[in-house]
Amino acid sequence: MPRDPRSPLWLLLLLLLLPPPGTWGDGGRARPTEGAEEAGSAGSWSAFQGLREQLRAAGALCRRYWALFSCRVWPEGCRQDEEPPARPPGLEADLRVRLHGQHLARELVLTAARGYLELPQPDKALALSFHGWSGTGKNFVARMLAENLYRDGLRSDCVKVFVATLHFPHHKYVDLYQEQLAGQIRKTQEHCHQTLFILDEAEKLHPGLLEALRPHLEHQAPENPKAKSPRTIFLFLSNVGGNIINEVVLNLLKAGWSREEIGMEHLEPQLQAGIVEATDSGFGHSCLVKENLIDFFIPFLPLEYRHVRLCARDAFLSQELLYTEEALDEIAKMMVYVPKEEQLFSSQGCKSVSQRINYFMP
User: Fold this and answer.
1) What are the pLDDT digits (tens) for 114-123?
2) Fewer CB within 10 Å: N-end or C-end of the chain?
3) How many CB atoms are located within 10 Å of the residue 177 CB?
4) How far is C-alpha 47 from the geometric centre of its chain's CA atoms?
């Protein structure tokens, strides 16, 4: 069947008539950004920069959808493991609009992912280690990255999620788990140009399993310099270091710093020291940490009352439900806040917020 050269133009026209991807599932309503609530309007130059990024993302998205459309109409010219775009088209917008209270994680994840995906010949896998209390957004960001890299998100055959207590529960079977983990990684890499491995509860992984990951995270010399190197991203999600992050943030806020002024220079030394010194986890003593195979340790800050309100708003919008400011306040007040004296941080972050909106449904 011959290809009609005009087809891309019709597809582009159709895409331009659709609402932006960030509004899908919200009934066509525009979602206010956290920045709009916290910092007010940006200057004209920022607006221009934002428009340029949106146009660039729209172009990448059009090319991506055209590739997917072509594969459905003319499958003989496509590979099953179609390579994702080098720059995830919606990742920046997702991190800016949907992730609340995590300016450090937003910047680091976006910079690390873009830099790695744009490398013509990566000589090692990208390894990111997310640290912070439960409910601060670690799994949320991992899912966001999967959704922007693969059309099927976490359901993609090129994405594998391992939960330490679920997939590797018994230490007496660690030899078997090592073989299974290494085999799953090799099989996925053979099938896909680009792979994403998410290891949740990383602090509970047996040292033998962490050792089994070493060959996949070390620097590799390509066997054939002309061959295109496979791209692999490892995400380690852990609660280790959460208390240290919270303590540093609390002290800085008490000293008069604003949350957005907190930088990696305030957190990185204490976080890495806390990971190494943790007595209830072998992660900090593993070869991955000692041999600097983790590229970035990314802190997730404790969430405050205002961030919980934004999570509640998003939960209403995701279900296309109307909400009131009073309802958002009521949900935020249901959460437990610590420390006892300051009542500053939500002890569960935004976890369970989506379930609490059921109290306000008619």
Assistant:
1) 999 999 889 9
2) C
3) 21
4) 25
What phi-psi label fits residue 101: left (phi over 0), alpha (psi between -120 and 50 degrees) or beta?
Answer: left
| 157-196 confidence digits (pLDDT tens) | 999 999 999 999 999 999 999 999 999 999 999 999 999 9
- Give the per-residue pLDDT at 262: 98
Q: Are strands 194-200 and 126-131 parallel, antiparallel or unpaired?
A: unpaired
**Rounded Cα distance, 169 and 163, in Å:** 9
Q: Are 95 and 110 in contact (CB under 8 A)?
A: yes
**Residue tagged 């078997």 (tokens):** 176
Q: How far apart are CA 243 and CA 131, in angstroms?
A: 10
pLDDT tens-place string over residues 263-282: 999 999 999 999 999 988 88
Give Cα separations from 252 to 10, 245, 282, 349 (angstroms): 54, 11, 29, 19
Q: Which long-range contacts (CB under 8 A, 24 or more apart) does 157-160 make?
A: 157/81, 157/188, 157/191, 157/192, 158/81, 158/188, 158/191, 158/192, 158/194, 158/195, 158/196, 159/195, 159/196, 159/197, 159/198, 160/184, 160/185, 160/188, 160/195, 160/196, 160/197, 160/198
As a whole number of angstroms, the distance between CA 345 and CA 343 comes to 6
Q: 3-class DSSP state for residue 305?
A: helix
Angle at 16 between CA 100 and CA 67, to 5 degrees: 90
Cβ neighbours of 330 (radius 10 Å): 15
